[in-house]
Write a structure and sequence with these properties.
The chain has 100 residues and is mainly alpha-helical. The protein has two domains: 1-69, no CATH class; 70-100. It is 60% helix and 0% strand. It contains four helices and no strands. Helix 1 packs across helix 3 (49-66). The longest helix has 18 residues, at 49-66. The chain is flat. The termini are far apart.
Length: 100
Amino acid sequence: MQEHDGRQHFNITERLEDLRREHEALRWEGSFRDYFELVAQNPKIAQLSHGRVNDMVHAANCSDDLAKAPNVEVLMPWKGVELREMAMQRVRDFLIRHTP
């Protein structure tokens, strides 16, 4: 939903419907090996529902608002095992630079 000032506002009803459609698109039949290969290519497939809702809410509002705060560094992308060490190092470096 877009407000008069041009800002985007989060609509949970629309987002949940989008997620339902995405979930339906992931419906399939196959062996565990087939599933494992799919998850290896796209780990989000195995994400639990509470994790999906958390990502949905956090990504929609918090990240945009926090990015406007002073002395903020936005890590994009920031999630994933392969990015963990890089993200943690950037957080450590940020804290060192901004801790009195």
